[in-house]
Each structure stands twice: as structure tokens, then as C-alpha cells.
Amino acid sequence: MEVLGIDIGGSGIKAAVVDTVAGRLVGERHRRETPSPATPAALVRTMSELVGACAWNGPVGVGFPGVVRHDVVYTAANLDASWVGLDLAALVREATGCPVSAINDADAAGLAEATFGAARDRPGTVLLLTLGTGIGSALFLDGRLVPNTELGHLEFRGDIAEAYAAASVRKAKDLRWTQWSKRLNRLLLHIDLLLSPDLIVLGGGVSAKFEKMAPHLDPSLRVVPAVMLNEAGIVGAALAAARKDLPANQGATTGKASRKSPRRRAKA
User: Fold this and answer.
1) With pLDDT > 90 as the criterion, what percentage of the chain qualifies?
2) Fewer CB within 10 Å: C terminus or N terminus of the chain?
3) CA nearest 243: which of 139, 103, 147?
4) For residue 74, what are the contacts with CB-CB under 8 A and spacing of at least 6?
5) Residue 39 has what DSSP assignment?
């Protein structure tokens, strides 16, 4: 089954059609800068442009950087607070005419790694951490996803974890790889104390530089790099939508953001 996957990040939004059986992109990957401010109208407009760029009129899966429950956004720490309470899937569906499913972005990346990548066929407790603008997390128990863990927002060293060890911190503070890797190691040891995972998979763009981090990670930690790299979020978002068995389409793609007021639901 082919599904369009959209991966929303703090700096960029990527989209591509995915073969959800093989776990690979079909055709070109398209990217747009994340709008600033990343308001619902601006972000939906950008996603609609990506749907048009991919010439797509079928099921769409969206990975969003925040807690997403039944397609509704509950947190949006690295985007715009006005997202909270909105039905993301409904907004994108209204703008594009496509059936849409939404999931936490790190959970999407985790699904890709658990199905096709570094955590494939791994039993027990498996944790994926995506290191980027923030820190996302996806937790699996015997292959089943425990959604919306958001471990990047754990209190750690007087702040939250992602403010201490996200990949963006290395650049913002001009840290050497050794310095930043030691920060990451302290966080991983703390998480290991809490969860005792059988495997930790490090994802995000920095996973391609795993050889720079590995010498500074405690040998007691069971850590491997992700293998899906920057395609993980796209593949996982599409895979999550495919598993929901969305209909083929719900109307013609418009390529324009809806001007209707977004539908809100009460927060939990």
C-alpha cells in the first residue's frame, strides 16, 4: 500500500510517498522550511503545498512533534501553542481532500525502526530517542508501541532533558562532540535507571555520526544507531496511517489551506 508520509520538524517539513510494505520511499522527497511562527494556518498551508508537490490524492500520515491522541494535538512545545486542542487530521483533510491520520513524530520514527530498521524483531523493552531540535522518544514493549512518552521533557539537571542534550544544544552552545556526547551519556544513564531498556536506538540526523558519540557512551548501555536516518519519520507516519486502513481518498486535492475555523476538542 502506498501512503504519503509527512514528517514535521522544528526546522523543516518533509514529505514523500511511501511503499508501506517495503518500508521505502517511492519517488522524490520534498522539503519545506517550517514556518515561523508555526501556527496552524501556516503549517497546514505548508503541508497542503507538499501534498501538491507530490501530486498526491490518497491516504496521508502526519508525524507531529507533540502529544497526539486520536488525531488531536495535546502539546506543541517546539511549535505554536495555538495547536493545542486542534484536530490535526481534520485540518489537513479539509485543506487537501485526503484521508489523514496523525501520530507523534518520534512514535512515527520508532515504528519505522521497529518494523524495518535497527529494532526490527527485537523483543523486550526498546527505546528510540530522536535527537534534533528537541528530543523525541518512542517506547516499545515486545514490539507494541507505548505512545506519547515524550521523554525529552523529563526534568533533568534543573531543566528538561532536551534543553540539556538535544542535538540543537551542541550547535547552540558550540560544544565539541566529546562534550555533547558526555551530556548525552548522562541522560541515557538516567533513562536507563528509569526504564532498563533492552535496547536504545539513537535516531535523528546525528545518528549518522554515531562513531563520534559511541566512545563516550557507558559500555553498560545497549545503544545502536538508527538505520532509517532522515526517512524514519516519513516512513513511520505513512505506516501508522496504513495500519488505520484509511479510505483511498475523500475528495480532490485542493493544494490550499482551509479558511474554515479549526475544530477544537476539549483537552484531557
Assistant:
1) 86
2) C
3) 103
4) 66, 67, 68, 84, 85, 148, 267, 268
5) -
